[in-house]
Amino acid sequence: MEYFENRELSWLKFNKRVIEEATSPDNPLLERLSFSAIYQSNLDEFFMVRVGSLTDKEKEHKKKKDGKTGMTASQQLDAVFTAVRRLQPTVEDAYRNNMAELKKYGFEHVNFNTATAEELSFLELYFKRELKPFISGLIINDALPFPFLKNKELYVAVHISTKKGISVGIIPTEHEHRERIVPLGNDGKRFILEEEIILHFAHLMFKGCKIQDRAIIRVTRNADIQVNNKGADFRDRMEELVYKRTRLSAVRLEITDEFSRDALDYICKKLKIKNVRVFNSHIPLDLSYLFQLQELDTTPELHYTLRTPRKSAMLTDTRSVFAQVKSKDILLSYPFESMSATFIRLLEESAVDPKVTSIKITLYRVARNSKVISALCTASENGKDVFVMIELRARFDEANNIEWSKILQKAGVTVIYGFKEFKAHSKLLLIKRKSTGGNFDYVTQIGTGNYNEKTSTIYTDMMLLTADKAIAEDAEAVFASLRNGTFIESTNKLLVSPHALRPQILTMMDEQIKLGENGYIGAKVNSLNDKAIINKLVEASMAGVKIELVVRGVCCIIAGVPEYTENVTVRSIVGRFLEHSRIFIFGKEGAEQKIYIGSADYMSRNTVRRVEVAVPVEDERLKKRVNDMFNILMKDNVKARVMLPDGNYVHVERKEGEEVINSQEYFYEEAYRRIEEKTAKQERLKTAREKKDGKTTTKSTKKKK
């Protein structure tokens, strides 16, 4: 169908938007470099997961086609490799141009052609004293085994001249006790990279050999491991699989500049990959070190304006969070409002509250030094019934979650790991507390993002805290289903996948379709590829329903296609913070409008193959706030890009005299303003009370006289 976009190519268009931020003059110079590093990190994961998965499909199901665009795995891989190569010049230009601009601030990435004579002498001595004793070169030919090249690590490869056959030398460059950046001056801003030093002096590692060519190489390995949660030894098997991932087959080989064709073919043969999977780069292969450059210069113009999460204006410090939620629903928006000041505070208060009897929570990704885990352990040690569903299959966080599960169990927490083939991706918390007359009160929290203090300061997310009894009843049912390995079939208010989310969403879309031109569907998600939802959106568009979508990454519906998606608008916002919140809106503003926030994207893996939870926002004040936020997202004319009918994206055109709106900066300003207004109001009330108390004291004194 002409309104479907291929998932993998759509993702690459998203990463193209990321690298465009590395070239944007709106971003400070050091922040631009960070976007280059983010682009590469994104692409690494894409190759490890998506290209890894397609590689497996190419071997196992050669003729099977993508259900939306009719492409085989082989065709998708060819298209992916072509698209990545087309982006490489932009990536290289962004790096070079930003480094060139940073020269006036003293930054310079030195090479052996630009180093001074004094620096060249230092580098030779540095290699001989600091590097050579700790590294080793290995010669490989048909008579010697090829070494295992670790995933994403850097190696120097040399082509050694021989009378017959091919010989290649391999030198590992990474060492856990050394810094990759070697400072040469200007407080470290003038630097060279360690692998570049090893590359230059590689011939000294192979004495008696004639080095014909040399290059730095980097292998990316498949990380698409699958495991079902069956049996009591699930955690043990996960530990084995995490190790196994490091040994999976190579899916990409990156190499600097040009290299001897014969030697490159030999390396590809040993890695068992085709030349089409070789990617050349004329800049460093690993850009992660660019984040370290941020710390070398504090000049304000090189960085974003400092922003710190504010306390929520909906809460006060004088009452417990639980008590305040009992009075009214509370909606929080990260990173603009503080997770620690509200959610962590709620957990820590509950952990020591003698009336709290139980805490139940689902964990997907948590911070390395997690206050959430600490509070849960404290609660258990204080005799509360603490139940944690921790998902061990959270990709690339498996090892972290395995260790946390052990710590939780040692503290007496009841821990389970999700069930069977379905990951539990929901963000759900339920706290039970004794009330008067032998009754219980409940606070339920449902969020769009993980319980992770670190990401809560760099991802945009939302959470609802409510004392609604019907929602608490649904939450109890979700936890019971997780414990029993069953699925929720129906609910009072929550939407719960895999059985009770997509059908309800499609039904609410049908309600808007009946309204035709008076209907409205809005959504903010990270990705959209669920075919049933896409088909329903097309049906709604053809019925005249206005559809506004804010999709950060993968979007498999193409907007503006005549006769099909003419009423669909798709925007993507890529900025300082990672857009991560999910909002579902059905109907125009008013009493009949339905709004949900939750953990699920409009992807089939979320809607039918995971346990996800979404909650209705029913408080009219909070509904207005969500609507206002969504409207600002749709007005963003700084970081927003709009999809064209050909599937490409362009920056939103700003009309002359139009207000400049960067939605993320707008929400931060709003959070600052709200807390300032609240503080000012409290000061006014305090002053008024003091005046009143003063008058009362004066009158009392006069009466006594």
Task: Note poorly predicted spans.
Answer: none
- What is the CA–CA distance across the termini? 93 Å
Count of alpha and pi helical runs? 18
Rg estimate, integer Å: 29 Å
Provide the CATH top-level class of the largest domain.
Answer: Alpha Beta
Average pLDDT, all residues: 92
| Adjacency order of strands in the biggest sheet | 18-26-24-23-19-20-21-27-28
Give me a quick take on this structure.
The chain has 705 residues and is α/β, with parallel strands linked by helices. It has 18 helices and 28 strands.
Descriptive notes:
The protein has 705 residues and is α/β, with parallel strands linked by helices. The chain has four domains: 7-302, Polyphosphate kinase middle domain (polyphosphate kinase like), CATH 3.30.1840; 321-484, Endonuclease Chain A (Endonuclease, Chain A, 2-Layer Sandwich), CATH 3.30.870; 498-661, 2-Layer Sandwich (Endonuclease, Chain A); 663-705. 39% of the residues lie in helices and 20% in strands. The chain has 18 helices and 28 strands. The strands form five sheets. It has a nine-stranded mixed sheet with strand order 18-26-24-23-19-20-21-27-28, with helices on both faces. β15 (428-434) and β16 form a beta hairpin. The longest helix is centred in the C-terminal third of the chain and has 42 residues, at 663-704. It is globular, with a radius of gyration of 29 Å. The termini are far apart. The model has no long low-confidence stretch (mean pLDDT 92).
Q: What are the salient characteristics of this protein?
A:
8-stranded mixed beta sheet; globular; alpha/beta; 705 residues; 4 domains; Endonuclease, Chain A; 39% helix; 28 strands; polyphosphate kinase like; 18 helices
